Amino acid sequence: MHRYEYHPIGHHLNDFTLIEGEEELWHLFHITGRAPKGSPALSNEHLAEGHAVTRDFIHWHELPPVAEFSAACFVIKASARYAMIKGISHISWSEDLHHWSPLEAFVYTNDPAQWYETRTVPEEARYVSRRDPFIHYDAETGKYLMLYCDRVGKGELYGRGCVGALESTDLVHWTFLPPVFHSGRHFYCESPHLVISGGKYHLFFSLSPEGGLRHAVSETLRGPYEEVGEGNVLPAYFGASEAIERDGAWLFFARLLEREEGRLDGRLMPGSLSLPLALTFDQHDRCIFAPYQQLASLHGALLIDGFLEGWRPASGTWVLNGEETAAQNHFTRVPAGAVLGSAYLGEARLHSTTAVRNFDLTCTLQMPTFSTASMHFRGGVLLRGSLRLEIDALLQTAILAEEHGTVICTAPLHDFQLDRYYTLRIIFLEQFLQVYLDGRLLMYLSAYSAPVGHTALLVWQGEAVFSAFTLYAMPENASIPVFPGGEPLRAECM
User: Fold this and answer.
1) Short-list 50, 44, 73, 70, CA closest to 62
2) pLDDT in tens, 438-455
3) Region 46-57: what's the mean pLDDT?
4) What is the pLDDT of residue 127?
5) In this predicted structure, what is the pLDDT of residue 229?
6) Which residues contact 121 (CB under 8 A, 6 or more apart)?
7) What angle is formed at CA 479 by the lines to CA 477 and CA 483, rounded to 5 degrees?
8) Is 122 in a helix, a strand, or coil?
9) Cα dihedral 55, 61, 63, 65 sign
10) Using CA atoms, how far apart are residues 72 and 86, in angstroms rounded to an integer?
11) From CA 107, how far away is CA 90, in angstroms rounded?
């Protein structure tokens, strides 16, 4: 398997948890499995728990699965031992994160019925499925708080999804608490977890059927949490997620879904583990997902540096600016070495002469108001010769599409302004694409295209200024070694 994003050999990755072990070695445990050919059903998903280790979250070593364990789990260190929580029902112990004790059932000290659904009634859209644990140790109370997905027992049927809570002093005896989050708008909340930053508690979860990422905030650990914004924080190609604190900063990980209409192998759904994303928050508690700094250490050759050579105009009007000058709007500057593309009736294209596979591209982009002849102002980049990334200033939207027009993904551009320079960064690794604007993540998803192709700048219905263009090669075939001893799970089901 040749991926930067971790993907177990011959199997898929579902809900996961990360924990640091000895000698700064991080351990990944995840639901794994393999579906039969021609079927999306994950028929042997719960045979074992996948296991892999890493030091940098880029290079992974796959280990034998934890055969004694399966299902969504969470691992936490308690004194000198590690505890693996299965669902919200069982616990197993380990001294080294490799060998685990037999499962021990939880003991509940109260009845959840006062807050949560307790019976399955399909015709009423009720189903009891308590799972997806996340555990935080509260040093102030000396207790463990577990967050998990559940449904409240009353209210509109399709709005009962909530994030439930329990607490414990020993990780075995648990007491149900009221939900920490219930908006009355969601059918089911998946994979909750917390990030503590700036004195606030940030709750993340996805929705069922899993798609997108939601974010809620509280001043206190036990809530109530209020959602930030109206919709998904990240697009629907994100599923289960988790964040870890490392060296005083937060790293965010998610399960990346392969796009079903063109995925590499139908038996590998639902996806891979994303590369880390640096996570911070602005003054309005909105998430800022930024590139993982360590990716820059993988830069190969600098393939393109500016516009002095290696480019070929294909259509439209392109002008190379020799020295810094005032723009036609009189209040911005056009830097030396920038190019201005212009097209109103057709499309302007400036093609690079270098074909690339994996790359890290950065440039600045401005949509100038040089003329009043257009209201749209559109520009963008052609990637690997077949994927169009479009910036539409009027629609305030970034659009990723196949060259024949099929839209793959869109992302809102809040308050995008004309005559302002933005930094665009695109990281394309094997089959996954990340797009950032001014250091904030817009898109992260699988993008099927030609394995190698040329980059082109695009302008239509207006003008655009591109400058400070660099394109670094990134290593190819970043292989993930498989442990000696054959496939982690039995052969695919017949």
Assistant:
1) 50
2) 999 999 988 888 889 999
3) 85
4) 64
5) 81
6) none
7) 165
8) helix
9) positive
10) 6
11) 9
Q: Which domains does the chain have, with CATH numbers?
A: 1-96+246-295 (no CATH), 106-236 (2.115.10.20), 301-473 (2.60.120.560)
How far apart are alpha carbons 136 and 143 in whole angstroms? 9
Provide the pLDDT for residue 482: 40
- Where does residue 280 fall: left (phi above 0), alpha (psi -120 to 50 degrees), or beta otherwise? beta
Contact residues for 278 (Cβ-Cβ < 8 A; gap 6+) = 249, 250, 251, 252, 289, 290, 291, 292, 293
DSSP 374-431: -S--EEEEEETTTEEEEEETTTTEEEEEETTS-EEEEEE-TT--TT--EEEEEEEETT
* CB contact burial 333-371 (16+ within 10 A = b; e otherwise): ebeebbbbbbbbeeebbbbbeeebbbbbbebbbbbbbbe
Three-class DSSP labels, 340-374: EEEEEEEEEEEEEEEEECCEEEEEEEECCCCCCCC
Q: Do strands 107-108 and 173-181 pair parallel, antiparallel, or not at all (unpaired)?
A: parallel
Q: What is the DSSP letter of 24?
A: G
Q: Which candidate, 344, 345, 361, 450, places its Cα nearest to that of 403?
A: 450
Q: What is the mean pLDDT of residues 236-262?
A: 83
Single-letter residue type at 225 = Y
Residues 6+ away with beta carbon under 8 Å from 99? none
**C-alpha to C-alpha distance for 341 and 377, rounded to whole angstroms:** 11
- Please choose, from the candidates 342, 282, 337, the residue with its C-alpha nearest in 3D space to the C-alpha of residue 304: 337
- The pair of three-digit structure tokens given for residue 187, joined into one six-digit string: 């059918």
pLDDT tens readout for residues 278-300: 999 999 999 999 999 999 998 99
d(CA 122, CA 309): 65
Work out the mean pLDDT of the chain and round it to a whole number: 86
CA–CA separation, 17 vs 29, rounded Å? 5
Which residue has 């859209």 as its token pair?
Answer: 125
Of 170, 214, 173, 172, the residue nearest 191 (C-alpha): 214
**Residue matched to tokens 């979860």:** 205
